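stage 2 :: seqdesign
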């Protein structure tokens, strides 16, 4: 009997956790294959135990439905974690775009696109959102395009004190890259 109750509680807990919103008692009872009275008793026992065990979650009853939610006493901790900065992922596209900006700054999106050969709106916007890149001015040209450069956060995140510490590429490596780019362009033209 004890094993059956534990399993029943586990299924109810999974339902309430997964659904997020309040779930009507009749739906829970149908899902666990028990009558409503038995299901209600099991849920109320779970509610009591959650309260006694001083857990961070609780089950509340809302007009004949039940919902799993956070206890009000935990809100402060949740607010603290919600205000922590999020870690972000620098994909290959973002790293490529960031390196172009770092080495060529100040630079416009059009100039970045000319180097990469593809649109860069999303990548530049993400880098601005991550505070690795910012607007550093406007080009004195028709349309006054925005010039982008790296931020202090960029230096901090990459562990350098100034842009002079960026690695320098050898002329030989630059020639290799230039040849690869020209071959790629030729392949695209042949298609």
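stage 2 :: out
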């Amino acid at each position: 009997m004890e094993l059956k109750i534990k399993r029943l509680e586990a299924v109810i807990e999974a339902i309430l956790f997964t659904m997020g919103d309040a779930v009507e008692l009749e739906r829970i009872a149908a899902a666990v294959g028990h009558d409503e009275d038995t299901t209600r008793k099991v849920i109320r026992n779970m509610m009591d135990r959650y309260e006694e065990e001083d857990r961070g979650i609780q089950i509340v009853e809302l007009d004949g439905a039940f919902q799993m939610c956070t206890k009000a006493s935990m809100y402060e901790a949740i607010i603290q974690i919600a205000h922590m900065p999020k870690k972000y992922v620098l994909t290959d596209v973002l790293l490529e775009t960031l390196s172009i900006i770092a080495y060529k700054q100040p630079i416009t999106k059009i100039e970045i696109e000319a180097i990469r050969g593809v649109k860069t709106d999303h990548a530049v916007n993400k880098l601005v959102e991550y505070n690795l890149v910012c607007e550093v001015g406007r080009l004195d040209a028709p349309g006054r395009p925005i010039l982008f450069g790296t931020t202090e956060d960029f230096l901090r995140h990459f562990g350098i004190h100034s842009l002079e510490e960026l690695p320098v590429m050898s002329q030989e490596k630059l020639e290799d890259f230039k040849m690869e780019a020209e071959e790629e362009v030729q392949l695209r033209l042949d298609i």
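stage 3 :: structure notes
- The first strand starts at residue 23 and ends at 24.
- Strands lie at 23-24, 57-62, 65-70, 133-138, 146-150.
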